[in-house]
């Protein structure tokens, strides 16, 4: 881990893809994206809020537009960060194979680097068309407190493991804190605290 050399072509743009439900987006997501962007010399990181996260169908998920707007608010001040509506606008359950195909169409020849926390990386073989994912993007697994980061069973050369500053923050914990009237200041960006308050998200949970 440290300064990373990942496979790329000469002169190609290097685009990070940070997929997530972002309910709400928090500083763990933002630090992971920022750290990977620096270590992998990325030109841009595209945040992609999920439409319908099918592996979270047993949980209540906030409306996609609220999660999208919180992601825009959280990333607006960073010129390297952008937000894609691809997974939201496609409709239906969200599969990363579709996300990557859509981004490949938009960004042409760019090299894609899909960023996942240790918990998501451990589940990747359960994702739709898992074996094909690695032909569309390089995958970057990042450390996350409480989870073991490993590429066991994943294609050789398809995944890099990266240590990022440890932030023991989860969206679940943020939602529970709001529901209990506890503060989420400094766990999520200030604008996201205000958006949660304005829209009265997570109050009844
Ligand atoms: N604190 C963190 N540090 C590193 N990676 C994280 C952190 N929180 C989330 N991630 C990663 O960001 C991506 C999107 O995560 P997601 O939007 O599901 O947030 P979450 O905090 O895991 O949400 P929830 O608690 O609702 O499951 C996943 O790849 C996840 O592993
Ligand atoms: O492709 C799949 O089948 C698949 C299954 C579960 C999760 N994902 C993706 O993994 C990312 C993190 O998801 P989540 O549910 O932890 O927020 C997000 O981009 C999801 O679309 C993808």
TrEMBL record:
Give one Pfam hit by family name: CTP_transf_like
Q: Which residues form the Cytidyltransferase-like domain?
A: 17-177
- The superkingdom of the source organism is Bacteria
**GO MF term (any one):** nicotinate-nucleotide adenylyltransferase activity
Q: In which pathway does it act?
A: Cofactor biosynthesis; NAD(+) biosynthesis; deamido-NAD(+) from nicotinate D-ribonucleotide: step 1/1
Query: What reaction gets catalysed by this protein?
Result: nicotinate beta-D-ribonucleotide + ATP + H(+) = deamido-NAD(+) + diphosphate
Q: What is its EC number?
A: 2.7.7.18
Going by the UniProt record, its keywords in alphabetical order are: ATP-binding, NAD, Nucleotide-binding, Nucleotidyltransferase, Pyridine nucleotide biosynthesis, Transferase
Family affiliation: Belongs to the NadD family.
Free-text function comment from the UniProt entry: Catalyzes the reversible adenylation of nicotinate mononucleotide (NaMN) to nicotinic acid adenine dinucleotide (NaAD).
NCBIfam families per the record?
cyt_tran_rel, nicotinate (nicotinamide) nucleotide adenylyltransferase, PRK00071.1-3
Q: What is this protein called?
A: Probable nicotinate-nucleotide adenylyltransferase
